[in-house]
């Protein structure tokens, strides 16, 4: 498995690829269930649902 990414490293990589990153206040220090710090990340999955007519 790849080395886990910190929040700072994830942003650095995305910006290095030319992406615009908009950060939400405190996202680097909060996880989604409020039980400790964010990360580390072992991967990123992007899901896009296409509907008829799009």
Structural class: mainly alpha
Number of strands: 0
Radius of gyration: 14 Å
> What is the average of the pLDDT values?
79
Strand content: under 5%
Q: Enumerate the spans where pLDDT stays under 50 for 5 or more consecutive residues.
A: none
Helix content: 10-25%
Order of helices and strands: H
Shape category: extended
How many helical elements?
1
Distance between the termini: 36 Å
Tell me the major beta sheet: none
Number of domains: 1
Description:
This protein is mainly α and 54 residues long. It has one domain (1-54). 19% of the residues lie in helices and 0% in strands. It has one helix at residues 7-16.
Write the layout of secondary structure elements.
Blueprint: H1 7-16
């Amino acid at each position: 498995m790849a080395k886990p990414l910190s929040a700072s490293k994830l942003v650095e990589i995305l910006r290095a690829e030319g992406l615009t990153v908009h950060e939400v206040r405190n996202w680097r220090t909060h996880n989604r269930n409020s039980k400790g710090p964010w990360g580390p990340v072992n991967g990123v999955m992007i899901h896009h649902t296409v509907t008829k007519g799009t």
